[in-house]
């Protein structure tokens, strides 16, 4: 006869299919935050062990994108649309954008790819998208190191302002988490959302000013320029470029819009995700 688990063993757990009150939910998620860090670390190490090149694969993806797209766009972009320090401009844009695409894509699968865990244990499901963003933040460490090395190689002087990239990435991580929470819930209701994510990432890749100077290209289109300035990925990339590149100054609206995007997205994402908490354990 199998003995029933003791009350101590079940402490902090609750039945699958229950949505705790919002405050209790956040408190329980904070209490179990070590689970998110542990899961992120194990998943990162597991993915690296599967490849002979290990950590090199983390930096090879953004580096290959920067080389490929930089070469192609470098042949066709000229005039006001071509920024000063073109190579450095592209490197910063691609490397920072990688943080968003990794969080957004993996975040959309954070619940559906852990279906057995979600259906068998009652715990704050928000920890799964959080673990995804933590993992992507860990992946950004070698990427940022390579970014600094490449900027020096291509003639960018080292500056104290480079240190500001860390609070900027932290703020972007908050935005990424909010976006990941939204698409994680949407993916539970409709798996087709996961097919749409790569398309959206590709669109953002082109309209976020990663390969061309938005202000120069859209100088004669004030409405279009204003809209691009409000794209969150553009804002985070623009302010990152300002602290990393002497030759670039982000529009003032980017410094205002970036923290606003982070605040609004995380609030909406957390509430929206929590509202469906009771349904995640019933998903197939």
Describe what is shown at a glance.
Helices cover 70% and strands 0% of the residues. It has helices at 22-31, 33-49, 56-76, 86-108, 115-120, 127-153, 165-189, 192-207, 214-217, 222-229, 232-244, 252-275, 277-280.
Characterise the protein shown here.
With 284 residues, the protein is mostly helical. It has 13 helices and no strands. Helix 2 (33-49) crosses helix 6 (127-153), helix 4 crosses helix 11 and helix 11 crosses helix 12 (252-275). The longest helix is centred in the middle third of the chain and has 27 residues, at 127-153.
Topology (elements, then pairings):
Blueprint: H1 22-31, H2 33-49, H3 56-76, H4 86-108, H5 115-120, H6 127-153, H7 165-189, H8 192-207, H9 214-217, H10 222-229, H11 232-244, H12 252-275, H13 277-280
Helix pairs in contact: 2-6, 3-4, 4-6, 4-7, 4-8, 4-11, 6-7, 7-11, 7-12, 11-12
Give the percentage of residues in beta strands: under 5%
Largest sheet: none
The total strand number stands at: 0
Spatial gap, N to C terminus: 31 Å
Report helical residue fraction.
55-70%
Shape label: globular
Any low-confidence stretches, pLDDT <50, length ≥5? Answer: 1-10
| String of helices and strands | HHHHHHHHHHHHH
Rg over alpha carbons: 21 Å
Classification by helices and strands: mainly alpha
Query: Helical region count?
Result: 13
Look at the structure and give the mean pLDDT.
86
